Amino acid sequence: MAISSTEAAPRSRPPGLGRFLFNMAIALGIMIAGIVFAVLCAVAVFTALNTVLPDIKLVQAVLVMVLGVAACFGYFWGSNRLLDLIYPPRGSRVADNINAANGIRPWLFLGPAIVILGIYLVYPVINSIFLSFHGPSGETWVGGANYAWLAKDAAFRESMRNNILWLIVVPAAATFFGLIAAALTDRIGWGNVAKSLIFMPMAISFVGASVIWKFIYDYRAEGSEQIGILNAVVTFFGGEPQAWITIPFWNNFFLMVILIWIQTGFAMVILSAALRGIPEETIEAAIIDGASPFQIFYKIKVPQIWGTIAVVWTTITILVLKVFDIVLAMTNGQWGSQVLANYMFDWMFRGLDFGRASTIALVIMAMVTPIMIWNIREARKDMK
Amino acid sequence: MSTPVGSRPALSWVVNISVLLLVALWTLPTFGILVSSLRDKDQLAVSGWWTALTASERNVVARAAPPENATLEDGRYVLTGNVFEDGSGKAVGFGISSRAPSAFAVGESAELRDGGMLTVEASGDYTITYAEQPEPGRGQRIFVSSVEPPRFTTENYKNVLFSEGLGKSFINTMTVTIPATVIPILIAAYAAYALAWMEFPGRALLLAAIVGLLVVPLQMSLIPLLRFYNTIGIGKSFIGIWLAHTGFGLPLAIYLLRNYMAGLPREIIESARVDGASDFEIFRKIILPLSFPALASFAIFQFLWVWNDLLVATVFLGNNEEQLVLTGRLRELLGSRGGNWEILTASAFVAIVVPILVFFALQRYLVRGLLAGSVKGG
Fold first, then answer.
1. A197 and A126 in one domain?
2. What is the domain count for chain A?
3. Which of A23, A140, B137, B341 could bond to A135 as cystine, CB 3.0-4.6 Å?
4. Nearest C-alpha in B relative to A43
5. Phi, psi of A323 (to 5 degrees)
6. Is the CB of residue B43 less than 8 Å from the CB of residue B150?
7. In A, which residues are within 8 Å of B26 by CB distance?
8. pLDDT, tens only, B69-121
9. Residue A14's domain spans which residues?
């Protein structure tokens, strides 16, 4: 399928790879012309209007939005016109021209996206690998010193241990609660309202959620009135109030609760859709055979949605690998709660060592890679 | 769904109560900060938000008017006033030293060191009577323990919006979010169309690359991009963060839109081609309008993600007063105002209210997008 456009190429032009490169060269030329022109126009209009308009950030933002959209549209329209000028879809060579234009047009459509993805996601991966072999400012070659340092660093080992704890607990708990919530809310009249409310924390930022939960974990010395609900409950049952987030090791779990709270709704929504997609006949057959509701759930329903559970699990796993805001806001890695992403941030901004920070980032990348490969394989299966 | 199982009354009760419990667990934390943010800050500091509707006990220290103000009544010198500055509250006991703030019940008389007799009524009115003209000096300190009615106020919001700089941060967040949500859409839409409906060599490879890029951790990009930005001179600027969010949002946008567009009926596109429409026209006149639900899904994702982002804003926008976004401000307040819950709760609510409103208004599209593209990790 992918080579059909090359096959359709007229014989008078160079075939195969040569043809492809020729197309790419023209596409590149038009693309650069289009992008440069669109960006220059947008910048010129922005500068011109900016001298007239009052200096209000929000006005500028709206202006930038409008101009950005206009520039994008201008690029796509302009580059398309340019292509039609080079290969006019009329005249004596109309068939050749349309074929040639069809070979180039996809690249014009894809152009800006490929450029941006290249700069923002592909180049950084390569550059990070380069930086991980260099010193703090990224200029002196240090060989494997950063990796050697990492292997011996105690804080790194603590972060790894905590990240692995997070990886085990959060996806499991969020998926579990999500599954329970999905199964239960599908059975009741006000299920949709309940779903909305359980789903709501998805809209709350990690920092916002951290404030919410820090308030729950708030600690006052014994004897005074507790205003954090957790300590209030503990003292109500006669326990001693604790400064929860400062208890080494266990504080990790108190931070995980926040992410579980946020992600359960996500798991619930996806799993609920999967549960509804289960063919009725299998359930009816089980009921006729006298299965109890719990048997139906665990033996009939859950096995049929394993695929979706795996998707939910991996999605949350990726999120957990990158967990950063919660730890930064709650403990900033103190009291033994450091994680990789926050540790990397630490070396980037406080340690000011780009080499070491890049090395830690690469560790996160390495941990994501198996899931990435799995995702690509699944996606390719779907698209066939 | 009404399966035969769901109609068993006992089980149905259990299900209803379990869901109620789950919903309570998932909403109470947010409800707690909403209630707290509306409470009077003195009450918030000494009692839990769940007691917000009950009267709370509080110790008040008031200073009576100076003795020389005493007026002559019936041959005695009398000072009167009220211990509550705002006139509310109900005294249950009073005292004259900090060691025994409620040594006397209301209505009793306490003898003062300078010879006066102090009485405090439940309303907070106090009377000090002296047999002779008292010496001039400072007013008597009166300790009163009072039961106060619950007080709610919007003072905390006024405070955070105008003096803690949250108003400015709110505008910064809007400034970041609006262009960063809209600009990726068009770029992604064209790319998605090419990937869904045009044939060219390398298409499968590009698709695989997009799926792969969905999960690349942001942490990878920070340092290389920061160095790159500093080289070309757009470090710590809004233009830099708009572009960064555009770049980080593109894989999801392309993936979602391509899946949606690939599902559109082939006949529409082919009949348009037969009628002589170019790809450009097909895209603009047919695909773009039909793809509205997918565009809306992505827009909500991107909006929530940009609004709630802390990492990208901290790295590319700087931490100064002029550029701090809501999440950054909230984080800073957590550090500097750690114990001032009236400020933290109100700030947190300001920061989360817009995404929550968007969420409830457009939930349908959000769910649809999640179901279509549940590969992205945030």
1. no
2. 2
3. A140
4. B239
5. -60, 130
6. yes
7. 197-198, 200-201, 261, 264-265
8. 778 777 788 888 887 766 567 777 888 777 777 778 777 787 777 777 888 88
9. 4-131
